[in-house]
Amino acid sequence: MEMCGSKEALLQKAEIYRELSEYYSGVLRSGKAAAKHIGALLPGRVVVPKIDVDSAYDYNQLFIGPSTLLAPPFEAFYHKVSPTVLESENLLVRNACVEAGLASAEEGDELDGHVFYAFAFVSKLLETLADQPSLESKEAYGLWHTYQWFLKEHIFAWIYDHLCDVRRYSVSSFCKDVAAAMNTFLLSEQDLIALEACEA
């Protein structure tokens, strides 16, 4: 399956999505690791952020609270689709993450499309795809299609507005730099999907 690239490339992207997921679960060093790996994938386009004394405070203000979040990490906040559709699709994603051991069933009650689950789901899709005996199989094509569909319908539909809010309201260079690295990576993913659609 030429469009997928190599198994090594799929695993490289899976690692970036996993690290971004961990970052949104509160592991700041995973945001730094993701930016570093994005920089290796896309040389010369990413600044590797430094964690400083303001980073944790800024992170909490943006994503956790206790006050009103400055950049809510929830699909439902930005992506205005039917609440019923969003709720059922988020439930499927959350269940897939739990079954894969990427999250606990007890984590949160709301089916709000937290970006933690979205990135964990994409990471698992890419790992499963790379684990296929052949990238030319029907199963591999199905996984590739699901990966593209999920990015287009769920992540690309709102993530850039979220990242814009992060850059607008962040007081630390760390959160801004992680957001910039994510933006660069996701735009490269979007460009590859669009290019493939043109060549189909």
Automatic annotation (TrEMBL):
Keywords noted in UniProt: Chaperone
Domain of life: Bacteria
Keyword Chaperone annotated: yes
Protein's UniProt keywords contain Chaperone: yes
UniProt name for this protein: Molecular chaperone TorD family protein
Lineage of origin: Bacteria, Bacillati, Bacillota, Negativicutes, Selenomonadales
